[in-house]
Write a structure and sequence with these properties.
heterodimer, A: mainly alpha, ABC transporter involved in vitamin B12 uptake, BtuC, two-stranded antiparallel ribbon, two-stranded antiparallel sheet, 11 helices, 6% strand, disordered C terminus, B: mainly alpha, 4 strands, globular, disordered N terminus
């Protein structure tokens, strides 16, 4: 029973992180019908920039720079801002010129961008794992994570914060998309870019804002992931990025509450599967892809999706 | 296919006849421009050059490099069927390569040697059978994997194939009983034929060359067949293709299967060539590399991926000598990413790209869209 509660809590937290990245995928896919593979890399950069802001000095390209050593709560927003700007730049350079080209071209460009960023991060930060500094209010004096007991399970403070932050962030994003003028422009662009443009929507600006939100959410997830697992590595983003896309498909692509539900379901399945299936922990990275294959075979519109994907 | 596979690999002598048979169809390779005799001469020259290459450079290092280039030539040509000809992005192509490699290694080492205690030199013929069987198994895997994405947009296929690649890698790493996990399978016998062993790099190069010429030949025939035209139609406009009576599901599955087949065959060859197989042979970056080769050389063009593989893999090996590259292996990945993005934005048809692909992949300008709209309006007025 304790183990079950523990796994549910772990799954909930993991699911929240997937959901945060999935928001970017789902919003961008909703408008551009493009899988922006680079969100996984933006997630990784979110973790790295958080670390860079929190330490006193860091080696970049083999040279040591002194850094401000900020608190986590300042470092994470900075990381989100930097990554959001990077996200917009990526859209401008790699996707905008291809907006009218066949989807294959944009997709190849996206995978190229992702590979470039991953290797660039390796050049910049080195291929070794970086330690994520302890955050004082989440850690005890001797370096362990602060915990409390609930239903027999040990829950860390940081896990709780991940869930709280995710829920707040997703509610904010959803309200923004549903209630504001820009949000309405976004939904209109997702339905028909050309007609929206005729109605006076600045589609380029809407797409830029979509990338800002998606990238910032990815960076947020990256910073939190680093804080939970205490590391960052240049290749850490690729698999979570793919899984987040699967979470977005699972929830119904183009749908923000769907991204949340999809993330949670995926996180739970992974966490419970790793604990209870035979050899589950070795094969846990494969679950998401098996889910995707089953899902695409039977219900490609996803759990909450109304937008059924059709042939191009 | 069956007897020609056996024959082509049978001896160096057969290379000549393969080359002769190959002349005309391979000329299709170089696209529609230029007089046919020039293309024949060109293809003949390339093949003659490839055959004489080992006599010009006599070092194992170079021969190894040429063999590796040939492996990538076939991989890129096979992936070109899916990406270039049919217009579907497969990001896990190396998974099929892994299937071929592990299939033959498991049969030879885990089953024949360890379970049945057989003398492997007696089973030399099985390698040639396995080339075909490995290909067929990989082809089946390709079709099964592609099936769920048939009703969907092609980009789901990209994610599915990435995921499939990951699943295959995880199985190779973790199913220790079958694949020996991270320690890999060693002691796989090299190719042999009636007691003649392809035991040195010189002889192995010719086996690879035979496979390479045969594969590119078959692909060039496929592309010019009814099937190839159906693929091109799907790439250009799937709805229109369907309206013209092409069973798109059928032809897409065929493309996945054909692509998988060539990867499977080369996987089998790789295992026997290296005598050792290991999960790190099949990393994700390898799949991306093969995509990069196709895009670089020119999608939808038989000669494109061949050129892409020759240029890139040679360059990569040559750069390995530089100390800077040795210390910074990530430069390779960065360049690959940049090449993909830059080519897509500025030259989507690649180095050799045909005009057709160039027109298709280019983002339309406002003026052209306007022109199209006027044409449509004209039709309605009449």
């Amino acid at each position: 029973m304790e183990q079950l509660t523990q796994q549910l809590v772990n799954g909930l937290m993991l699911g929240c992180l997937y959901a945060l990245i999935a928001v970017g995928y789902t919003m961008v896919y909703g408008i551009l019908e493009l899988i922006n593979f680079a969100f996984g890399e933006l997630f990784m950069l979110g973790a790295f920039i958080s670390i860079a802001m929190m330490v006193d000095e860091i080696a970049l390209f083999g040279r040591v720079f002194s850094m401000p050593g900020l608190s986590f709560f300042l470092a994470l927003p900075i990381a989100m801002i930097v990554v959001a700007m990077l996200g917009v730049a990526i859209e401008r350079v790699a996707y905008r010129p291809l907006r009218r080209a066949p989807r294959l071209a944009a997709l190849i460009s996206a995978i190229g961008m992702s590979i470039f960023l991953q290797n660039f991060a390796q050049a910049m930060f080195g291929s070794n794992q970086h330690f994520f500094p302890d955050i004082p209010i989440f850690t005890t004096a001797d370096g362990y994570a602060k915990t409390f007991i609930l239903g027999g399970a040990q829950i860390t403070y940081i896990q709780t914060s991940v869930v709280v932050v995710t829920v707040i962030a997703l509610v904010l994003v959803n309200t923004y998309v549903q209630r504001t003028r820009v949000g309405r422009a976004m939904r209109a662009s997702a339905q028909d870019k050309q007609t929206s443009a005729l109605m006076g929507v600045n589609v380029n600006r809407v797409i830029a804002i979509t990338f800002i939100i998606g990238s910032a959410m990815g960076a947020l997830a990256g910073g939190l992931y680093g804080a939970v697992y205490h590391f960052a590595r240049p290749d850490m983003g690729f698999i979570p990025g793919l899984k987040a896309f699967i979470a977005a498909v699972l929830g119904g692509i183009g749908n923000i509450p769907g991204a949340f539900v999809g993330g949670l379901v995926l996180g739970m399945i992974e966490s419970l599967g790793a604990a209870y299936l035979p050899m589950g922990s070795q094969y846990k990275d494969a679950f998401a892809f098996v889910i995707l294959i089953v899902l695409l075979s039977f219900k490609p519109s996803g759990l909450l999706g109304t937008h059924v994907s059709e042939k191009s | 296919m069956v007897d020609s596979t056996g024959k082509s690999a049978s001896a160096e002598m057969d290379m000549g006849s393969d080359a002769k048979v190959g002349l005309n169809p391979i000329s299709a390779i170089l696209g529609g421009s230029g007089p046919p005799w020039l293309q024949n001469v060109l293809v003949g020259a390339v093949i003659a050059f490839a055959i004489s290459l080992p006599f010009m450079v006599d070092s194992n290092r170079w021969l190894t490099l040429f063999t590796i280039v040939l492996i990538y030539v076939v991989l890129a040509s096979g992936l070109n069927i899916v990406v270039g000809m049919t217009g579907l992005l497969d990001l896990g192509y190396v998974a099929f390569y892994a299937i071929g490699g592990y299939y033959t290694s498991i049969i030879f080492i885990q089953v024949l040697k360890n379970a049945w205690g057989m003398d492997l030199s007696q089973a030399w013929w099985l390698l040639w059978v396995n080339l075909l069987l490995g290909g067929i198994i990989a082809a089946a895997a390709g079709a099964v994997l592609g099936y769920p994405t048939l009703r969907l947009r092609g980009d789901y296929l990209a994610i599915m194939t990435l995921g499939f690649h990951e699943i295959i890698r995880i199985i190779a790493n973790n199913w220790v009983g079958l694949t020996r996990g991270p320690s890999g399978i060693s002691g796989i016998p090299g190719p042999a034929l009636f007691g003649f062993e392809f035991s040195n790099q010189f002889r192995l190069y010719y086996v690879a060359l035979a496979l390479g010429i045969l594969s590119v030949f078959v692909i060039s025939r496929l592309v010019r067949s009814r099937i190839g035209r159906a693929w091109a139609a799907i790439r250009e406009d799937e709805v229109a293709a369907e309206a013209m009576g092409i069973n798109t599901s059928h032809y897409k599955l065929l493309a996945y299967a054909a692509g998988g087949f060539f990867a499977g065959v080369m996987g089998v060859f790789l295992a026997h060539y290296m005598n050792f197989i290991h999960p790190s042979n099949f990393q994700l970056m390898e799949s991306i590399l093969v995509v990069c080769l196709v895009v670089l050389g020119g999608m939808g063009n038989v000669a494109g991926p061949v050129l892409g593989a020759v240029v890139w893999v040679s360059l990569q090996e040559w750069l390995r000598d530089f100390e800077f590259i040795q210390h910074h292996p990530e430069v390779r990945g960065m360049t690959m990413g940049l090449v993909l993005v830059t080519l897509m934005v500025f030259r989507p048809q690649g180095i050799l790209g045909s005009r057709r692909v160039a027109l298709e992949m280019r983002p339309g300008t406002e003026a052209e869209l306007e022109h199209e709209r006027e044409e449509v309006a004209d039709v309605f007025e009449r």
